[in-house]
Design goal:
The chain is an alpha+beta fold and 520 residues long. It contains nine helices and 31 strands.
């Protein structure tokens, strides 16, 4: 009897689960005396998913502060209580933010209402031309019933904006934007063109580049010309030099991605943000007598000229005879002239917004060839990589001893579904970005075969991520000394003398069993 009663109780409990809802989401932005004041207000009802139990906002204490205006909760129609002081804290940040302001609603139960309001002050240099923002109508993944964004204070008479599902309304000291349930992001900007945005982003770096270059930089440039290389080779060597001697330091959220230290400070610290490494590389090209300029880039489709999202910085080098090359100095252990583009890349080229198509398969190519001797149970592996595969191979093996590389390859093959035991391995210099990456290895594949016919698994290496980028991947298995071989996959055997060859260009992910017949 007890067992029968438990079943309907479980069904009722599952059916009563309801998601959290947000009735109001409001952001008010006010610019006054070069300080931006952003007020965020949220009202909602806690559901069984408990998404409203904890609300956090990242901030950078160097240029921002957060004040809690209101945090109350309670059942509808009943007296509400304030969040206790111990439930409000400042913690280490995440997602690039140095710090995080956290408000927890203790004992917030399903069906309770919350009301939350904070004020963020920002006195960084980001607002010298006026307020701008990219705002999403979502709270913890919840679409609000009512969403309202507004801009006030020292703003243009009619700021440019874009956003599907929004309606603009003039208010006393600014503009208000309300949206429907199906609205997308709202883009608001004081910039009238991408040319104006381009000039704004590059103000700090152009100021640095126009100053006298430090002696350390001139000495580094001399290293790239020590062998009398041509311009193409000089650029490749300069690219390798910056990559090998400078570490990448990501910009902290809350501070503009285009702020920059002096060239000497960057050289002394041996690291830099993407725009700082672009500045070092550009200055080095200038020392070599080459024309070079910086191009901000983003993977976000910019509906308006807004400074947000321009986190990648390319450098275009031009020669007197009309040749032009594009490099990304902050791309760690990446071929000298390869720009990784899994999706469309938007680039500001001398103020003109250009689109760069995603990488083609020919740019991301791999030939992975296994020569296998079933009689002795040995293998020889060779890999020739381009583009993304080249980048991944360098980052996997750079700086390792041969013993460490053997361990890495062993683990890699094990995780790929067919372990091999390498006994020797060599790779082209991962730190020389001028030459394509290649790897050669040999070792044991399986125990020597005592049978004329047996089944085994073909080895391969899983690279991952090939579904999100276009690639040309070719795997070749040469089974030496075989009378015949068959596979239950789509692989078709090709017999040549005493070798059976399988070729795969589809990037098969599953294990590859093969029936092998060898001469005894």
């Amino acid at each position: 009897m007890i067992r029968l009663l438990l079943i309907p109780i479980f069904i009722i409990s599952a059916a009563s689960a309801v998601p959290s809802t947000v009735s109001l989401y409001s952001i008010s932005i006010t610019l006054k005396d070069d300080t931006l004041y952003k007020t965020i207000e949220i009202r909602g009802i806690q559901g069984s998913d408990r998404l409203l139990s904890r609300i956090a906002h990242g901030f950078n204490p160097e240029v921002q502060s957060i004040e809690l205006g209101e945090a109350i909760f309670g059942y509808p129609g009943m007296e509400s209580g304030h969040v206790p002081e111990w439930a409000v804290d400042t913690l280490s940040g995440s997602g690039g933010w140095p710090r995080s302001h956290v408000v927890a609603f203790p004992a917030l139960r399903e069906g309770m209402e919350i009301s939350y309001r904070i004020l963020i002050k920002d006195w960084s240099e980001s607002w010298s031309e006026g307020p701008w923002a990219v705002l999403a109508p979502s709270v913890r993944g919840i679409s609000p019933d009512s969403c309202c964004f507004s801009v006030h204070g020292d703003i243009p008479d009619d700021p440019a904006w874009s956003g599907q599902g929004y309606t603009e309304r003039v208010i006393d000291d600014g503009f208000m934007y309300t949206c429907s349930d199906s609205a997308g992001k709202l883009w608001i900007t004081p910039f009238r063109s991408f040319e104006d945005l381009y000039a704004f982003i590059l103000i700090p770096v152009n100021d640095i580049l126009n100053r006298p270059h430090p002696p350390d930089l001139r000495e580094a440039a001399l290293q790239t010309t020590s062998a009398g290389a041509d311009e193409w080779s000089q650029v490749r060597r300069a690219r390798s030099l910056v990559c090998n001697s400078m570490g990448l330091r990501l910009s902290e959220m809350g501070i503009s991605d285009f702020e920059i230290r002096s060239l000497q400070e960057i050289l002394d610290s041996r690291d830099g943000t993407p725009i700082e490494l672009a500045a070092i590389f550009t200055a080095m090209c200038h020392e070599l007598g080459l024309q070079a300029y910086i191009l901000p880039a983003t993977e976000l489709h910019p509906l308006q000229p807004v400074p947000q999202g321009w986190t990648r910085y390319l450098v275009r080098i031009e020669t007197d005879d009309g040749r032009s090359w594009l490099v990304e100095p902050s791309a760690y252990l990446t071929p000298a002239f390869y720009i990784y583009k899994p999706d469309t890349l938007y680039v500001l080229d001398k103020g003109i917004l250009l689109t760069h198509a995603p990488n083609s398969g020919s740019e991301n190519s791999l030939i992975e060839e296994w020569n296998i001797d079933p009689k002795t149970g040995t293998f020889r592996l060779s890999m020739n990589c381009r583009g993304r595969f080249d980048m991944l191979l360098r980052r996997k093996f750079a700086g390792l001893t041969e013993e460490e590389m053997i361990l890495v390859l062993s683990e890699w093959s094990w995780k790929s579904g067919r372990p091999v035991v390498p006994d020797s391995i060599s790779i082209t210099d991962p730190f020389d970005l001028a030459q394509p990456a290649s790897l050669f290895a040999s070792g044991r594949w399986s125990a020597p075969s005592e049978y004329g016919e047996y089944c085994d698994i073909l080895p391969k290496l899983s690279w991952g991520g090939t579904q999100i980028v276009s690639v040309n991947l070719k795997r070749i298995w040469n089974l030496e000394g075989c009378i015949s071989a068959q596979s239950d996959s789509t692989l078709i055997p090709v017999k040549t003398e005493n070798t059976v060859t399988f070729i795969d260009t589809t990037g098969i992910l599953h294990r590859l069993p093969v029936l092998i017949e060898i001469e005894q």
